[in-house]
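Bench log, entry 3. Co-assembly request; chain sequences pasted below exactly as received.
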Amino acid sequence: MNRLTNDLIERLRALLGADHLSVALAERELHARDQSAHPPHLPDVVLWPTTAQQVADVLRLANDARVPVTPWGVGTSLEGNCVAVRGGILLSLARMNQILRVHADDFQVTVQPGIPYKDMNAELAKYGLFFAPDPGANATIGGMLANNAAGIRTVKYGASKDNVLRMQVALADGRLIHVGSRSVKQSSGYDLLHVFVGSEGTLGVITEATLKLTPIPAYMSAVVASFPSVEKAVEAVVAIRGSGLDPAALEFIDEAHARMLNHEEGVDLGEQPVLFMEFHAAYEETLRLGLEAVQQICDELGASRFRATTDNAERKKLWHARHHSYEIMVRLHPNDKIYIMDVAVPISVYPALIACAREALAAENVKGYMIGHAGDGNVHVELLHHDADSYQRAMAVNRAIVTRAIELGGTATGEHGVGLGKRPYMAQEHGAALDVMRALKHTLDPNGILNPGKIFPE
Amino acid sequence: MNRLTNDLIERLRALLGADHLSVALAERELHARDQSAHPPHLPDVVLWPTTAQQVADVLRLANDARVPVTPWGVGTSLEGNCVAVRGGILLSLARMNQILRVHADDFQVTVQPGIPYKDMNAELAKYGLFFAPDPGANATIGGMLANNAAGIRTVKYGASKDNVLRMQVALADGRLIHVGSRSVKQSSGYDLLHVFVGSEGTLGVITEATLKLTPIPAYMSAVVASFPSVEKAVEAVVAIRGSGLDPAALEFIDEAHARMLNHEEGVDLGEQPVLFMEFHAAYEETLRLGLEAVQQICDELGASRFRATTDNAERKKLWHARHHSYEIMVRLHPNDKIYIMDVAVPISVYPALIACAREALAAENVKGYMIGHAGDGNVHVELLHHDADSYQRAMAVNRAIVTRAIELGGTATGEHGVGLGKRPYMAQEHGAALDVMRALKHTLDPNGILNPGKIFPE
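Structure output for the full assembly:
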């Protein structure tokens, strides 16, 4: 890999215009780290292309010069996915942030990659439609697709990969291709769409995407229930899904998390594992019947507390503590940093995973809160640390949980992607398939210029 | 590509056992064609491996000898996808047809590829679960995954690609890898799972699959409604989907098809475009409310006939004509063959596609019936032909419709795959991405032994 030369900078400036390139330290520092604890790295230059062709041209120039290119949405990733660890070009898609076309009758929208999904959804609300994946932080569509972001409502609506139909992608050698189709049914040749979704900018740069949209549900209900054990909470998850109730969110928090919310928010969750649920329906009557069934399931499994509502204001109140739990945690631990780890397993082994996490936290004397998208078997353990020693211990907990998740038939990452942090686990999880991933990388990016240092163990 | 030698046959016999290999003409003829009109080709040998390792070993031997291998499920494909057009080895997965494990609490099942999906679903019914994609013919799971088969209920439950989590795959060089994970949320490295799904046996052979299952719905309703025009029928599709009613099936037939069913089945559909619908719910009350809403939508759009029911027996009667329409057509045209073509477009341009089909049928004087999964924008035109001339004219109609579908932003195939018949359209549909598909093929199957002659234009 080569360093960026002044000559290349001049060619990039000529390509994009002086306003769309910066070598200023302040800009480079603004693009040096994501929201994770992974250490920052300064890129040599920050670029803001405004067209797909410019993105392709930047890649061609960088490829010819063997200079690294790291794509950047808005920097909300959690595993260092968009940190330019080899320097070179930081390619910000922030100025390609337009909705190009709303295909309302097709329940689709075509957008540029730099649009933040909450901003897009605010506009789409006018059409009664929304893009369902919801990672929380106001990530860009390009970043969500590149990391296959998911979130709370994935249990009903799927992850980013399930809500995209077609993309335009710039390849490392400067070709601009389209993958997928605006047809929702597709069996025409290889599924290149999903080759690029989740590839974290290491195979190509997404320059445009047509997304699948969902009608905004007419009615929503909420349930919060506390269970005597993780096992009982998981039994409830299985029973609720098995009953065909099709929850739109099925969130888990552990005792430590519940205790924190009880204390800080004045809620009464008990010091027990808690499930937060949401249901969507076209009719209020469906929700009412559903809540009866959910209550019966929860009662039979010994739920100590059960609150349910079909009222919008009440629903928001019930979920308030869950939605604000991260900021509550930050406020409560002003001297700590928080490492949010992410694994996912088949739901039947969720209790075993939680037990492993609990043991590892105790063994390493690390303070941690567990929160998870239980409907998907996804769990995040929020690991507190404040110095080098506690960071090392938090990382030991992380290792124990990730290793166990893979042993249990799960994955090292359900929604944060591999980035920097999950590279050490790729061989354990994928075995010989990791060689196939390497071959794919070599086929599409033979010079290794795209987001180098990510996904693959060194 | 080399011919099969006696030496290789002996090595294959030693590997599999004499009972699992045949060079008999009768067996070769049984594996020479699928259910399409594409001409048969005799393979040189038929193999029935019984383990994944045997599949991998067969591929290694074939790869070393540069002999073609064409995987085979049960031969129900519709574009010649499993026809051994270069001879060589026909690899039947028919004897790898076991359910390996039902993960009931995870809503998953792990199976061998040769199990027919209807047989599998009969067993899974004991657990209250089913695999949702339903291509109609009793295809094998391996074949469905290899072709990304879909069917009637895709509008709610997705295609095969949306209902698979993990596979074991044998590669051309004899490596056996696993792709995906039993975790429903996955963002760990490249999505190799979807590289192999829909690759029609040209990149690897699926030797095991873990499928996503759905609880069998407690209640189902049916609606049949006739509309004054295709435009009005499509408006109904959009309005029903937009209302959040989440139909489980939304099927279209054209006037010609309706006329045939009226005459042969004694049903009263009118000689108009007709929509057949199905809705699934956990509560009968939800269905009742849904039917009211659907009726209102259909009334407003001028539906001349509307029948709806939540009764099971009545529902089956309403759908009977639709489910049996293919055999009715065959009976009605004893001297004709039927070429079932398959394209899909965004629903907003469905009327334009149907108009194009109608014009092409008239221009070429070809008798055709249209039937489609309108909820997905998918249409099949069933083209009748009886001699070389009428076959050529039917193919001209096919070309006109496929070309138009691609122009309209759709795809050359929504669910039948490329096989032999759709190769000529790959460049038009995919442009430069076709080169990327070729590169992927070369990476995974450098000697081109896997199902040669498919997907790529010559």
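The mean pLDDT of chain B is 97. Chain B has four domains: 6-94, 99-215, 219-326, 333-417.
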